[in-house]
Structure formats: structure tokens, C-alpha cells
Amino acid sequence: MTARSADARPLGARSEVVHAASAIRIADLRVSYPSPLLDGTRVHALRGVDLEVARGEFVALMGPVGAGKSTLCLALNGAIPHIVDCDSSGTVSIMGQETGTAPFAQLALDVGLVFENAEAQLFNATVADEIAFGLEGMGIPPDEIERRIDAALEEVSLPGFRDRSPRALSGGEQKRLALASVLAMRPNILVLDEPTAGLDARGRYEVLSAIERLQEAHGHEMTVVMATQDAEAVARFADRIVVLRDGQISLSGTPEEVFTQVEALERWGLGVPQLARLAYHLGLPPAYTPECAAQRWAGLIEPLPNPVTPSELPVDPPQATIVEIRELRYEYPASDQRALHGVTLDITQGEWLGIVGTNGSGKTTLLKHLNGLLHPTSGTVRVDGMDTRDQQVGQLARIVSYLPQNPDHSIFCATVREEIAYGPRQLGLRGQALDQRVAESLDLLGLSSLAEHPPAVLGYGQRRQVALASILAADAPMLVLDEPSVGLDRGTVTRLMDVVSTRHRQGTTVVMVTHDLQLVARYAQRVIVLSEGRVCAEGRPHELLGDVSLVRESGLEPLPVTLLGYALGWPRPLPVQVAAWEAK
Amino acid sequence: MSEWVYAPGDGLFHRLDPRSKFFFAAAITIYLAIESQPLALLIALASLHVIALLSRTTRVRLLPLWQALLPLLVLLLVFGGVRWQPDKAWLALGPLAVTRASLWRVLGMAARIAGISLAFSLVLWTTEPGDAVAGLTRLGVPFAVGFPAIMILQYVATFRRQFQQILEAQQSRGLTFSRWNPYQVARAYIPVLVPLLITALRSVDTLALALESRGFGSSVPRTSRRVVRLRAIDWAFMAACVAAIPALVLV
């Protein structure tokens, strides 16, 4: 096993990693679960995994949704075979002890596991109690517990948070607290399941930098295994990438080795760092961080002419306005803080509007005004000419279909077919017209073969597809998407967005809230940036996302290609050029 | 639900050891359960309100608590207070009537329910959950029993938020509650309650794994960073509770 090259690690000081001994050895691990369909069959999550991880190594587990990453994480801390209801065979050895024979309590001391759903693993009333919980279970004296609480909070940059309620923290803070509560137990191995999913750029940076600082603080003795879809983070932080597919390891190597396999990774539905994709398509030397690419590609790549400026674009025929927002102010009833401060915005029929901003900037609050879930404290919101104050949410559902971030908030029917039929039936559709609408949606999302399955037991990616199919079946003239890419592999995201794109080409208006600027660059026609409840910027994606300082001031992280352009001294590097380069 | 969650403060109740507050809640509950005089029950309820009004933290939670209890109390008043005795009616409602006796009886029952709720709420509002667990443990309640009992109250707020999110998601799909037929209203809630149950089950899975992964139920004797100590003020408070109950009985 080799250390990755230092030039791709801008935040870290480690130049060479010496792996003296194995922290993890896995031999022929096979895990299967009873099928959730209760038909007596089994779902094979892992099918013969062999893996060795050296002490101090940072290994990223990548793979499509359902590849077996979370199962592997559970096997590493001994939850499999000790707690989880499953069949398993093969051996997992952690710091020399086999998980099958070692007591689970002992394994928990060696392996700290941070789950994807941070909120569900925070069960105490205060931050300090949360961190103390594991330590008290280990029989640590109270004085030492207090010292470790302070140290852990310092390590994850949450000093002064001792008495706060874990439920009152932001998503990024909750993830860091979950990390701190595990770190305080001083595990030899840290296992992280999707630690950055759903976080904005700042939250991702905070979590990943905390992990890197920890490795440095522990003299690179702490082994980290991180399951993630975040290719850009993997490129910056991991020593090695292990790609899981259908419960087996398909690829393993340094980021340089793995991210040169662009074609295979994309075929498997995985994300690839933007610059690695560019290098592959243009035949440039491999590089996947802007700093590295700027060094290696200087003189090898020329900027394409900038796309025409908006003033040069042909003037579109004027379209009707479907949403008209004037001086919208909103205060949550139980809070003194104002969530929106005088937002004025028009959304044109048939456009694709991207809304970006940090966590807590007011994006979701704004979305909820579009379908009447919230009414303005002052100001007006008109949808299709109607003041939302005068309309019930159910009535506005004829015009606005809303896709929530969590598919489990809407799924309740016994079959996928019934689930998709629910929305249009509520809107009054019956008989053959309803059947036809449902069949079209099933077909559009490739769900026909699952039509009679219970949707609640499908995999996460499929549940997201069912949720999208059910709102498409309502055939509303406007789709509102809340973080459509969170928790999904790139292949599933592309499939979902292509379906939305098809609907958009047929005239549907799309409003999309997302942290994923690559998604905005690829699909949106216009983007607004929200900051502290105000629209702080508005424009075409290539103009706005090409402005590094504006993006950073808004609390967002510029796209790698934009940073590369700046590093190479180009006047205004534009994300849209990636597609043009790739086409070239 | 904020009605059941601790809020920081510096009133008398906040300064007491959790065990003396448990004693208070137990004593009030026993008294309210055995007292049969409606007037005494109402006086006890009023006394509890006086205690709650002494601190801002508890004062501001009285209204939400009454709002939460209101549906139950209304049902109690309707089904317990209305009788088919028009000849003895204090208040006639067509063929139905509210008699003085039934009114007093139902007011006493309402005072009993509200009083017990308020007594336990005072404990929960003023006791940090960690202290409550430490207090229970010191009373001999196993940690494996005491911790989940207190922890579940923290999750009520989480489930309430999830209920709201699911309700919003289903309303966005056209769910309406405009019907007045109780059967149809109940049916309309199915699309909300089923996802809530599924979401709760998924969360519970993660929670169970997280608890076990951090040593819950391990054989190592637990330590606690929470120090609970009965001081003079606690003994005095418990003595006052003991003295107050006979006084109420005499009333």
C-alpha cells in the first residue's frame, strides 16, 4: 500500500504515510439479510470482500447506493455479527481481534462508528452529556470525562457548545458532535458513514478538516474508513479508495490510480472529481485538485472563448410569470429571528431556477412559500396569479408539485403503483386517465417491474425514484425540488435529473434548491444566491458561478474548474466550459 | 414537545436535587389519587399553579400545557358532566343536562388529571435530563431502565417535527382535512401516520446501534459526571411537602 502524492493534499502536512501494521483485515466477508419482502429470499449485501487497511491509513469507500458500504461499516465495529439481524461468514479482524469472537463492548472501544443520520445517534439533552455517554459506560472517572469533553469539542471546533441541545445544532454541527462523541472514547479506528451528506460547502469543509486535524493530532496513528459519494472530498483527503459494487470490491488504489478510471466509474454511476473527468476527456495528465491541475496542465490547456454574454444572447420571447414574490418577509412563530428579509423574485413559466445558499440561509423557507405551506409575515406570494394566502396547500398542489428531500416523508402505500396514484387521485383524477398517468410515470422512472412492490422496503435510491414518479404523475406545471441529489450516487442523480429535464423541455417550470453547484451549472438557466434570508446575487449560472469571490462570500465553495481557471490566470473561468471542453 | 422538555432557570425547583422533586411529584400524585373532594382537588391544583408562577421558566409553559391538556379535559367534561337528568338540571342542553353534582365531580376529575400532569411537568421543566437519570440511578433504578425513560421525552420533540414535515409533504400532494366526518378525518391521517411510523422505526434502528456502539448495557460499572446531592434545602422541601398534604386533607 502506498501513500498518495502530497500535491493533492492542500490542507494536510503529511508527506509520507508509513503503515507499520494492519488495523483491519477482512477475509471473504459475506453478509446477507432476510428480504424485506418477507418472501423467504435473502439480500446479499457483501459477497466475499477481502480488504486490508494499514494503521493510520485513510480509506474512502465509494460505491453506488446499495453497494454494501454501510454493511461493511457495521461489520467493522462488530455490529455485524453481534447486533444486526443477518447471516455472515468470513473473518473481520480489528487490531488483531476477530469481531466474531471478541465481545462487542470491547470492539466498540477500538472502532468508533459515526452513522449517516447524525440526529438519530444523538440521544442526550446536552452536548456535554452526549460526549460523556460513552465515557461513563467505559467507567472513566468524572474528572477525566470533563477533560475529554473539552478536548473532543476542541478537536471538532465546537468549543463553548457544552450546554447546547444537540437538536438545536445545524446539520454540520450535529455531524461534528457525533464525531466528537466517538472520538472522546479514543478509538484506534474511526468509521464514518456518509459524514458530509446533506451539508453545505462550509459544513463539509468543517467535518473533513476536523477529521484531518485529528489524524495529525494523533500522529497519523488513527485509521479512518469513510463511506462517501463525495468524490471531491475523497480526492483531497483519502490515501486509498476502495470501490464497492454489488457487495464486491471492484477497484482499489490511490486516488490517482482510481480517478484515472473515469469511464468505468461513470459507467458504475459513481462521482468523479470534475478535473479528473476533464483530464480524461482532454487527454491531460491526471489531476483532480485545482492546485495540482494548475501545475501539471500549465501550457497544455487553453481557455475556450467565453460563452456569449447575456446581452449578446438572442432575446427570448417574453414568457408569463408563474410566481411573483414581492417584499416577502417571514418570521417563524416560535422564533424572534426573521428567516426571510424582503425577498422579491419573479419565476418565469418554463424556466429552470436554481436556488443556492448555505444551511440556514432561508432556501427551504422560500420553497415552502411557493406551495402555500408557509404564508408571508408580510409581502405577497402569487402563484399563477393567485395569492397563496387565499389558497389551501392541497389546491396549490394542482400547480406546484413539491419533492421533499426525504422520500420517507411521503411514502405510505402498499404498492409503488398506489403510491404514484395517490397524488393525482387527491387532485381528482380517476379511472383510465389515472391508470394511464401512473403507467407513464412508472415507465419514465423505470419502475414498471417494481409496480406491485411495497415502496417502503425498496432501497434508498429507488424510494427517491418513487417519490419523484409520484409528483410527476400529478402533472403540475411547476416542480419544486428540495436537494434532489442528497444521499444518491451520481448515476441515480443523473437518471432523476434527466427525467426532470425531459419534463422541463416539455414546458414544466423547475425550481431546485441544492448545495450541489455542479448540478446547478449543468441544469439551471438562472440561479439566485440566498444569504441570511436575502437574495444576494442573481444571474445566469455561468456568470454567477464563475465569480470566485461572490461564491465564497455567499458561503459556497467554487467549482474546481473555476478555481483552476483562476490559478491559471484566466479572466473569468466558467463552469459551462467543462461541457464544451468535454465535447471538444 | 416543548411542554415536557427541560429549560434552564434559577427558581427554587431548578436548585433542588432531582430526588426531592421526584418525592414531590409522587406525594402530589398519591394525594390527588386518594382525595375525593372536588374543592380540595381544585385547591391543590391552584397551589401547584402558584408554585409554577413563581419562576419565569415554568410560568411561560403553563399555557402550552393547558393547550395540550385541553382536548382531553373537554372530552372529560362532555362525557363525564352531561347527564340525562333534565329535572335536576343546573344547565339544560335540550334533553341533556348538567347537574351540580356531575359538574363538581367532573371538575374534580379534571383537577386531578391537570394536577398530576402539572406536578410531573414541573419536575421535567426544571430537571436536566442527565440529572434526572442520575437521580433515578441513585434511587436504585437501573440505568438501563432510567435512561430510556428520560431519553424518550427528548424524542417527542423530534417526532413532533417529523410529523410536521410529513404532514407538509402529504399536503403538497393534495392531502386536505376539510371533511368534518370523523371517519374521513381519521382516514386522511393515514398518509401522515404511516410514514411517521416507518421513519420512527428507521431512526430507532440507528439509535439502538448508536447506543450499543457507545457502551450502553456493557458490564463495566458506569460512572457519572452528574453529581446529585441532597442538601438542607431538599430536606426542608420534602418536609414541607409532607406537612402540606395533611393541611390539604383538612381543608
Q: TL;DR of this structure?
A:
Chain A is built from 23 helices and 20 strands.
Topology:
The complex is a heterodimer of chains A (584) and B (251).
Chain A: E1 22-34, E2 42-54, E3 58-62, H1 69-76, H2 79-82, E4 87-94, E5 97-98, H3 104-110, E6 111-114, H4 127-137, H5 142-155, H6 171-183, E7 189-193, H7 201-217, E8 223-227, H8 231-237, E9 240-245, E10 248-253, H9 255-258, H10 262-267, H11 274-282, H12 290-297, E11 321-331, E12 338-348, E13 352-357, H13 363-370, E14 378-383, E15 386-387, H14 393-396, E16 400-403, H15 416-426, H16 431-444, H17 460-472, E17 478-482, H18 490-505, E18 509-513, H19 517-523, E19 526-531, E20 534-539, H20 541-544, H21 548-553, H22 560-567, H23 576-583
Parallel strand pairs in A: 3-8, 3-9, 6-7, 7-8, 13-18, 13-19, 16-17, 17-18
Antiparallel strand pairs in A: 1-2, 1-4, 4-5, 9-10, 11-12, 11-14, 14-15, 19-20
Helix pairs in contact in A: 4-5, 4-6, 5-6, 6-7, 11-23, 12-22, 15-16, 15-17, 16-17
Chain B: H1 12-15, H2 18-34, H3 38-53, H4 56-59, H5 62-81, E1 82-83, E2 91-93, E3 96-98, H6 100-126, H7 129-138, H8 143-171, H9 182-188, H10 190-213, H11 232-250
Antiparallel strand pairs in B: 1-3, 2-3
Describe this structure in words.
The complex is a heterodimer of chains A (584) and B (251). Chain A has 584 residues and is α/β, with parallel strands linked by helices. Among the domains of chain A are: 6-19 and 56-83 and 104-258, 3-Layer(aba) Sandwich (Rossmann fold); 320-399 and 477-544, Rossmann fold; 418-475. Chain A is 35% helix and 22% strand. Chain A has 23 helices and 20 strands. In chain A, the strands form four sheets. Chain A has a six-stranded mixed β-sheet with strand order 6-7-8-3-9-10, sandwiched between helices. In chain A, strands 16-17-18-13-19-20 form a six-stranded mixed β-sheet, sandwiched between helices. Chain A has a four-stranded antiparallel β-sheet with strand order 2-1-4-5, covered by helices on one side. In chain A, α16 (431-444) crosses α17. In chain A, 53% of the residues are buried. Chain B folds into two domains: 1-128 and 229-251, no CATH class; 129-225, no CATH class. The longest helix of chain B has 29 residues, at 143-171. Chain B is built from eleven helices and three strands. A three-stranded antiparallel β-sheet of chain B has the order 1-3-2. In chain B, a hairpin with a 2-residue loop joins β2 and β3 (96-98). Chain B is mainly alpha-helical and 251 residues long. The mean pLDDT of chain B is 86.
